[in-house]
Amino acid sequence: MTDAPRDAREIGVGLISVGWMGRLHSRAYTNVPQVYPDLGLRPRLVQAADTAEAGRAYARDVLGYASTTADYHEVLANPEVEVVSICAPNFLHAEIGIAAAKAGKPFWIEKPVGRGEADTAAVRDAAIEAGVATTIGFNYRHPPAIQLARKLVDEGALGTITNVRGRFFGGFNADPNAPRAWRFVREQSGSGVLGDLMGHLVDLVHFLLGPIGAVTASTGTFIHERPGVPGSPDEGKLLPVENEDYANLLIRFDETALASTALGTLDASWIAVGPKAEYAIEIFGTNGSLRWNFERMNELELAVREADGSVGYRRLLADATFPEFSRFQPSAGTPMGYDDLKTIEANKFLLAATGRPSDTSNIHDALASAQVLTAAEESAASGQWVATPVIEGSTANIRTGGDAR
Ligand SMILES: NC(=O)c1ccc[n+]([C@@H]2O[C@H](COP(=O)([O-])OP(=O)(O)OC[C@H]3O[C@@H](n4cnc5c(N)ncnc54)[C@H](O)[C@@H]3O)[C@@H](O)[C@H]2O)c1
């Protein structure tokens, strides 16, 4: 691998919120010139905003931002900031996303974009009006095994897709003594596991198989109270959890979807005891099936009916035949990691932000996912199927002429 060309253009980066995702976005910007020297850009970490002094200190002293501020508006007004990462808690996404668009700054924003469909639609409208490029933190699109899966589905290797089964099971909120942080408060987070994990799974299904056309769902909360955040005025109190821990969806696809006649079941939990990041998807077709699990991100299991009628799963381990893999590792089977997914995402964002062709996710994809989640909440309340019309501009996998399968 070569380094970025010496004449790579510097591009000024602004960061809003220096939590887990803010730090990860920053590492991705730093990695991009080495992994994608052909991008011709060298991100410069210009300014970071966080209301917490600890976040600002980390941005300045560890990540190397040239300056920091408690007020994100300063980042958006900074003329040296050309692109912005928005990594704030969900309740701030709408106001920050709209402000970024109005400031004319392309933005890479974490999912879910806001607390629900209305927040996401407002950000979408502002981005369209300003004509700024957007990328969403839908990082589970990027593992080379998933990109290979999409290629296999597109080529018809599985035949006609009959059904999809997805489960995104995490245990990060399984401890009932974990504090009631912003994620459990409706005003700050919107939905619970729907926005947190199901939003990723819905986007992954859109990416692999096409737009979901209708949904019915049920949701449940199983840990009803959690202790107040230590050091906050709520320390020592038990407070109500205001959103769901678990959700399951039955889905049908839109007629334009690559898998238009398929059916599916998707479920997500953030209180699963056992699975830690079991973000898994299985796709079945008339000629074969495939399955992937983020806990074994570098593997794809594939079963395709052979000419003699035999069938069985083969475990494909990532190597140079997997899309993007050679960017990261020269040696077959050497595992890639989660950070690498964000480096792939950063490259797609910077391509789009500098007006070049990019297969990045975008704000329309965020709205498509949010719409399904809102429909799921409506369905969980009413018991009815709810339609989810196609969102124009999304990059969901649609049929491109004829009934190819
Ligand atoms: N793509 C993924 O896989 C993934 C994973 C985790 C989180 N996320 C998303 O990323 C977003 C952030 O999550 P996180 O885990 O990094 O959160 P976090 O709690 O680690 O960090 C949030 C940060 O925001 C700061 N903040 C709060 N109010 C602010 C304000 N007014 N201005 C500036 N900063 C402010 C906090 O001080 C904190 O540093 C969420 O939307 C979450 O859903 C995405």
Automatic annotation (TrEMBL):
One of its GO terms (molecular function) is oxidoreductase activity. Pfam families: GFO_IDH_MocA, GFO_IDH_MocA_C3. It comes from the Bacteria. This is Gfo/Idh/MocA family oxidoreductase. Keywords: NAD, Oxidoreductase. InterPro entries: Gfo/Idh/MocA-like_OxRdtase_N (IPR000683), Gfo/Idh/MocA_oxidrdct_glycsds (IPR050463), GFO_IDH_MocA-like_dom (IPR055170), NAD(P)-bd_dom_sf (IPR036291). It comes from Pseudoclavibacter chungangensis. Residues 147-291 form the GFO/IDH/MocA-like oxidoreductase domain. PANTHER family: BCDNA.GH03377. Residues 12-137 form the Gfo/Idh/MocA-like oxidoreductase N-terminal domain.
